Queue: 4 jobs
Job 1
Amino acid sequence: MLPVGLLDWRRTDDGRVVARWLGTQDESWLRELVAEVAASAGRTVGEANERIAEIVAPIAYRHGRSRRTVEAVWTLERRRWSTRIASPVPPPALRRALFELAAERSREEALATAAATFNLDSARIESLLFADRAHVRVLSPPVTSATAAELVEEYNLSLVQALVARATEVTATIRANLRRVVGYSKLLGLMATFGEAADGATTMALSGPLALFHETVKYGNALARWLPALITTPGWSLTARVVIEGETLRLDLDAGAPLPRTHALPRAHDSKLEAQLESDLRRLTSPWRFEREVAVVRADGRLFFPDFALVSDKGRVLVEIAGFWTPDYVASKAALLRAARVPMIMCIDERHAHGELARDERVIGFEKNVDAPGLVAACERLLSGSGC
Amino acid sequence: MLPKSVRFDRGTLELGADVPSVDHALWDPRTETRRAAAFRFHDIATAADAIGMELHGDLRRNWSVRPLNAAALELRSYQAQALASWAAFSRRGVVALPTGAGKTRVAIAALFETGLPAADLCPTKVLATAWVDELRRHLGEAVGLVGDGQRSIERVTVLTFESAYRHMDALGDRFGLLVVDEVHHFGGGARVEALEASAAVARLGLTATMPEPGSEAAARLGGLIGPTVFEMGYADLVGTHLANVAMVRVPVRLEVDERAEYDARMRVFLEMRRTFMRLHPEADVVTLLRGLGRTPDGRRALRDRARALELASFPRAKRSLLRTLLDRHRNDRAIVFTAFAENAYDAARDNLVPVITGETGARERQEILAAFRDGRVRAIASARVLNEGIDVPEARVAIIVAGALGPREHVQRIGRVLRPAPDKEALVYELVTTNTSDARRAQQRARYAPRRST
């Protein structure tokens, strides 16, 4: 993420914040900047910053970009570089010795004594006194440099993450990989309400626990970290309320934004079991088709993300495959089934389908693989009214 | 088993249907439960107690209470009064005492008397390590620290404000007592989530500079910590419980080239300010700076102004005078306060004295403070890090080279040399560059300085 002072955005008359992206047209000046930056190897951080400050304005002017954009790219590139302390003696040891000497003697005497102790001359002692400060450390370049195209992607993502990090709430539209995206938000401690967009996609309003009581940017970092997961999903969009420069503005983004997919796309199947089942259902050539993306379902006060749905002209049945086995987990699945107000079938390892689960017609036991014809038959029964 | 009435959830409380209705609890559509911010636990527990209801999941049951006798602390009379007053206000409120009057001692007494597991919040990592040392010394048990690169949680744990803002939602149910040093920082509303996410029922705020009564800041602290339960100023304590202090203001002039640069850099800003204020007569400083920052010319003028302020804060005359003063006070223990970190490093190089800034690592900072206490070094230069709370009773001389943060900073800095010691007479030098913004700032803060007791 970029510091707020380097964010390049504009405010529209209708109260929106619009990010100024980099694109392929910027790659020529980025290459120019990277070449200039490469010359910073062996210089101190301060010297490199001064050099960059000199070239920022001309580059920005020639290519019609703002200075802060150019500075922001250097900030990102700089993070790849490492630094070392250019001193034969650790500066803290030097300081400790010299300052204690200076408390007892004159400046000259203290410097002379320290010089003798460290086998350096007085002037060198003075010059090394704070050689460990950040801006006098010496820069070493990264093993491999970023390409201009990589910098464009990194810049755009950093810019938008820095804006989202100032958000009080984010509302996203998700058209694929819902379970993964929601799971990641939970992992980050975020909370959500769900809805349905006009086209049937799931909408998700994300914030944190204390956001219920007042607007807060406390969860901005979590929201910014969550963003790459959203970006992996095709057709995504997002609206955020962003607090910046003392104003609350609206940020609108969608899949057309030039943002890289930095996260791997989630696997199509949660398990081999599920993959096998889908394949078996296809081979059946039954009128039931497999639907992977299923909207969120609320049951028993909790949110439920079914693994998939089976759909035919008779209707739609949600299917959940109980994936692991603890008494609490199985009990929660039983409670879910009790509270479900939509047609739903649960596939559960028959060794664990005890008690009410064993008696429920909506439960299909399986040993190794779920029996596809059995599942289809259960769906038929359920929708004909005998099982639900 | 009954469902839980109260469940701590990331800095909030999920409330069961059996919990009596309390203000500020809201229906949360995200979980379909009633929810309140964790700091409302006091209200919820009080309401339940009032009707004799047993709260399932009552956080208080998880707090091991180990009270100690505060008599061992030998509190001064006003410290004991402050503690009694806080206890009388249901252990919720702010104690306002001037720097050097021993607020820490009041907090430790609160820890002793309540015996509750406690979170102790303070603004900086420097202060956090000082609190850990002090608490460990008095309590004789391990003290946790979250911040300054550490994360150890104990029954009594110190957190920096930043760490509390980030982590209190994971820790807020562990502590029954919340102590907030320099509590005025929360008056502006920034990072109040650190206080909201704690379920502590006993809350003690400490400050030397309470916000004006009736102000928004005072109301905010009132809601999150409690009312001001005890207040004393310098006038009540200087000469008795605080060292007497002599204030010496030393004016200096810019040299000819410095004056020319200062005037040149300020000129455009002053012209722009005049124009802006003509167009927006009601505008305050923030609006002015924001307005100017919207144009390239305005930003250039602001950069020039910033450079002019830096120049006026530490011109050659101040640099030279500082050398003279430190030489004069070679046998004293002195703290040099500058407006900017770079000036502190310049002062350190010129005079070969240690410097403590935000860049100084924890270990070196501890070593410098120890060396200062032992007398192995006689002075420390700092910009802002030593402004608040660091306990250096040995310091007798403060040299205020320049200030950047106004009256509150000024009062805090002076307080650093007011810790009482036998026959101690504190001395505060204030170096002021005439006919510059530095002089105007000095004038504004002057009325907040303590007066010598006669």
Job 2
Amino acid sequence: MKNISRILTVSLALSAFQAHAGPKEREKAYILHNRLTGVPGTNAVLDLMEASIVQGNYEAAAEEAIKNKNFYNVTLKNWVKSWSNRDQNPRVEFNDFVATVVGMIRDSGTKDAVTNLPTMPFDQVLYGDILYKVNGQATAYAANSNDHYRNAENAGANLMTDLVRETQSANNGLPLFAIAGVMTTRTAGENYYQAGTNRRMNRYMFINFLCKDYEELHDISVPDNNVERDVERNPGGDSRTYLNKCVGCHAGQDALRGAHAYYDFNNGAVTYTAGTVVGKITRVNSFSDGKRTINDSWTNSWAQGKNASLGWRTVTSGNGAKSLGRMLARSRAFSVCMAKKVFKQVCIKDAKSVADKAVVESLATSFEAGQEYNMKKLFVKTSAGCVANE
Amino acid sequence: MNKNNMKHIYKFASIALLTGIVGLFTHCVPETTKIEAIDAPIKEVQAPKTEGEVLLALEVSSGVKSYEETLYTLSALTGVADTNANVRSVYNDVKVSLPTDSEMKSYLSGHQVALAKLAAEYCNEMINDVTLRQKIWNNANYALTKDVAFKSANPAVREELVTKLIGVFWGPSAAEEDKPELKQELLDLIDDLQEGEVNNTASTGIIVKGVCTAALSSMHVTVK
């Protein structure tokens, strides 16, 4: 016991000395590799990275680092896991949501040989017909089970090489027009369609992909004609609460909810009933004159007013989750949010200073340039910039 | 409104404005500032910040490794497979106590204890494996008793043990100017761990594992 406490004391005493202070270029290569992959690089890889850094080419060094499978297996997997559940917890099983995002990032930057257009722009994460499975697994994919992904993780699958791109429409039984990127994955359904009133899906897509929770979008100047019947107009007997508080969020979010009117989560799978609004949406009627969802149309009431600053750039009304996903993913807020999240991940800090905010804006612009939405490039540029300037 | 009333209103407004101006000059100048001379520096007296406030205000641009990053980092440094049954068993026990994210400010003593436990298992597996330990100490002779191996008259063994640990585990994360002091900490640990141990070859292995654990569970390994 005495020895254990002595060892612990020494490990803490050793920690008191400044970490990361070796010869400059080598040290930078070491940090860059750790930031991107979570593990130290081998001497051979650090040699290559150091040589690039000596030339001032930090991006080449970062590109070398992400050839390590742990960029996918550790960094990206754990980064995205927290997007896939209500608790925003990274300590959950690997799943179809995470596999699809990691796969899309791995394949970002590829271009069609004929058209030269990007084949995997990351904005498709909210509307594309994409599903990544894990190759060589004994447990087959099933639309109503996570076993395929859980077992793949437990077996130590290599996410850099083993992820295989397929389509959801060929695997989960939903029609092509109802597929909306990760929103229609089994895991998203389990977390965001199950029970409730289907408002949760949009809220978490705003949190995860636009970096905005509804509290931040609160705007009581939006007309309340889209607030649904299940919202009380005089909560606690005081209609002022409704007018000054409830309306701020519900006027916008209820106008968007129609997109998910035909979706539900039953028996472990996402279900879609074309033309039939799921019962849970209209079950409660607290105010008969309120809006009643009768189809899957949606409109973006936040396109005007203070939330116009999110930069909506496509149509602001439509039908179904696919068109809603496209509107979200093509907004300026999506690009800025992705840049912010990557910045936080590899620079280990929030972009709070004026200078850091400007960097994030610039990265967002570069990310969406030419509608390439190249996530891998975003990681490379962001990490290279941070480590070079530290 | 008659003229008399207007006069009262002007008078009231003038008094209010004057009061406001006086108020501006008495309350808006920071009371903590006193100009002593034209070119003298301005002294500001502020309430001392609590340790928590100082910590909160600090902008940190380094982070700690999360549970899974720690597992793979220790594996990469020791050469012990992360799938090793004994390592996995300890990892599954301490996983929840290792950091969830990279937030340095929320790093707790419990995280460090969990890290030391995992590091101890990695060191145990590495040192029990001749091939792996020879990658670090190619000349190590574990057939020596502890007195022969670590007595002060035989500094080469102690020196090699510590120097190579620092080189392999910490790489460029330890500053060159700090290394002599860091090395001395580990050398002192060797002396401390010898106390009360039987003078045999088993004790030699135990001491090496202890030093290995201290080096492997330091922040030089787990900071990113």
Job 3
Amino acid sequence: MTEKLEELLAAEFRGGRYELQVDADRLSTTLRRRRSRRTAVTAAAAVCGLALVATAGVGMLNVFGPGPSQVQSAGPAPATSAVVASPTVAAKRIRADSVQLGDAVVRGLPAEAKLVDAGAALARPPAVVLPQTGDRAVLTVPVDQGTEIRLAVVADAEDHPGLPGMPDEQDWLGSLGGAHALLTVDDVTDTTYLSVNTPTGRRWHLAASGPDAAARLTLVRAVTVATVAGT
Amino acid sequence: MTDTTFDEFLRQALPGLARYAYVLAGDRHAAEDLLQDSLVKAMGAWPRIRQDGNPVGYVRTIMARTNVSRWRRRRPSVPVSDALGVKDVALEGVEHRDELRRALATLSPLQRTVLVLGFLDGAEDEEIAQLLHRRPATVRSLRHRALQSLRRNLRIEEPRSQDRADLQETS
């Protein structure tokens, strides 16, 4: 009986009912138009983001004196991605909400976050763009509906030329004690990226992957605010 | 160059992708939206997708994820019993495709996507779980509940299926 229902479903999905006539040329035109609209929005957001970062940078210089002056922009992501170098140091859980990465500490983690093998975890899709250098940790964080977020954190990478996706300007990015931050959302890989340069010269890079964008943002915010505050 | 290549890809792959969108969405208009949304995303990431070497698979993955990401916004709004209005339909009655389609239309996009990935693509639970960022046990649970709902709506007797056995093993 079960097999019968399953067979019916397979036949239904493979049947001829679902033929959808779409004109490729017209669709191509529509896609290009939508894409250019989206790019324009991205560019506008990037300009606003840069303006805010620059303003925050000036404020930081006034308050803290010279600090890292590199301003990041959402430029083209590096062609290489995902599976990157092995961690140079082993990440270690030091408290329920903290993980040690060399002399850096990642704070603000949910208690249920689980430290996993970085190489194996990052070998699985979605492929995310991470700096090639730096100490790294990967954690999985369960959320609602049986889903989970895979959070990759890299500390003190040498450099990275940009982040994939579209910039997402959040108010709290301007309240990180003078740190320069850039947040982007990549819909293709369901990943939220964040890079932060702190006034003390520490660099953080986060990539949170999971189907729920709001949950990703909540996690990234909690970790960033707690971590940067403790840096 | 990227555009040209994407256009070539579009012309070649469009019939299959359009059909896949329709199967996932279950509704013509929703399928057109899903197709466009997914292809806009693919267009933006085209260099990476092309480099990956399996653009059709990549776009289908985008489609499945996009369909799932909409699931909270698009729940079945019509009670199953009202939608079907059928009673004592024997299994033979399921032969009437319309009844099966109406029953399928009451599933959430997430449940439907799990069924499509399993019964159309033949994907294993692990693959589906990875693709949808769920756990394998969650995938089994979603499929079990989807099939249970279909059986209930089609008045098919509940068997002790392998699916149910699998579910019990994981719980």
Job 4
Amino acid sequence: MTPAVRVQDLDVTLDGTHVLRGVDLAASKGEWVNIIGPNGAGKTTLLRALLGLVAFDGEIVIDGLSDRRRSARARKVAYVPQTPVIPPGMLVADYVLLGRTPHRGVFAAETANDRRIAAEVLVRLDLGGFGERTVQSLSGGERQRAVMGRALAQQADVLLLDEPTTALDLGHQQDVLELVDALRRERGLTVIATLHDLTLAARYGDRIAILARGRVAETGPPAEVLTVQNIAEHFGANVRIVDDPEGPVIVPTAAASAQNGDQP
Amino acid sequence: MSDPQHSGGPGTVLQASGLRPRSLMAGLAAAAVAVVAGLTIGPVDIAAHRVALQLLDGLPGLTIDSGLSDAHAAIVEQIRLPRVVLGLLVGATLSVSGATYQGAFRNPLADPYLLGIAAGAGLGATIAITSNLGDGAGVFDAVPLAAFAGALISVTVSYVAGHLGGRSTASLILAGIAVASFLTACQTYVLQANSDAFRQIFAWILGRIATSGWSEPALMLPYFVVTVVVVLRYRRALDVLAVGDEEAAALGLEPRRIRLIVVLAASLGAAAAVSVSGLIGFVGIIVPHTVRLAFGSSNRLVLPLSILFGGAFMVLADLAARTALSPAELPIGVVTAFLGAPFFVLVLRTSRREIW
């Protein structure tokens, strides 16, 4: 089976700094891959390269398409940024309709089909009655769903999530990730997400890739990648792994400070 | 999954924000009221219906007796009408330019005046006038072209300097103020060095909607058309730019290219407006923000309505300027500053809240 996303030998240099070096990554259709790694490892840059927002060397093929033109890319890949810009005064309906931009072109108006898709997305995300409200007036969780709605309206097969849970409390974190999982199953979406919370990454991902110092250090199923040794090596953290039926649970241990000196 | 037809939302089919007939009618009505007021009110009051008949009489193939004396007919056709038309064009252009800058820079306080664009255009025009490069007539006269060059230089410098100081609302405006001060100082220097042109240019600095027949409206018209056509074409793209460059690019657009095009178009119009009517401040802020408050924030309605309400606003401001101290005339820049400065403070307050 051809993978939905294939990244090969990806190099990105930003302002003279070699941020990504020889990154290889693949995700098959319908798969959920979580990218974890310490701060500054290049996680967001990897997502931005997938979106075609930064210049890169190497190859990125999405759904058989290696076209670097933005509009073509935007029909294949939708993006939920870590801190979305919420435009003042913009209505939720207009905001979700922005997701139709790559389909309608710069100058054209939305078609009835665009509006039908956006309406359907709003209902699916329990925002049915919110179309005439401004995005700003929504609560944190509702806002996150509106951003998700814009991405869904894009009808792209690949969904990129950059720390989708950062600003949310535990309940809303679960809501968002459950929603992504449900949508993935309904629509066969391929999900690539960066996550800080390793336990959540283990629970919601089919596979995990550890990105460290601009390279993919480890990749595989959560139970294989999230080992005490890997976490110590790449995060400089001392943890205990508790096996749970739903996946490994990562528990930080108090001895961290004593052993930290050994970590690179 | 529930049926979208029964989503419970207001209306069952999702509608995008746009120009509704009701708001379009409001804009047209405002412009019509302003035109009627501008044509009928003045040192000589002329009845509206006679003005209407006189204008119909002017149409090719129509001969109507309006009942106006020749002198009154001349006041309507040769003095007031060109002035009203110029007011419409200048007001519409400055307003739509302001709305465009606000959208392109995602900055509620951006306008031709505060970004230093007007000052740049002013310096360009002053240099052209003092060096006798043009006589202010004709579309390709040196004065508007020099003003355009000055406008482009100043908007570029403001934008780059504002970026160096961070990307906040404040840094762009501070940079604009610095650029405007510098250019105004340059202009003063040029003026002092050419004191014979002082009176002419000083009157122009304060702003005026004065016409000598149809030459000013004729000069302004093509610039107005180009600006409006380009900017309106990009109204939907400007709505996408509202989510920032990164997200707009992820939605498939080229934000920098779009910004470059609309800023060029807005600057072209603003420069032409400055070259025919001097430095008229705050219009580019007052009108778009009032439209946003009244009708909504989408550029699909803010841009076209700014044209209509901007034209109306300028004609009425000009009416106030020429009647408040009649028979003396106030510079129109004084009128707009009277209204605009308090409004500016209001925008500063509300910009932290919802409308922008």
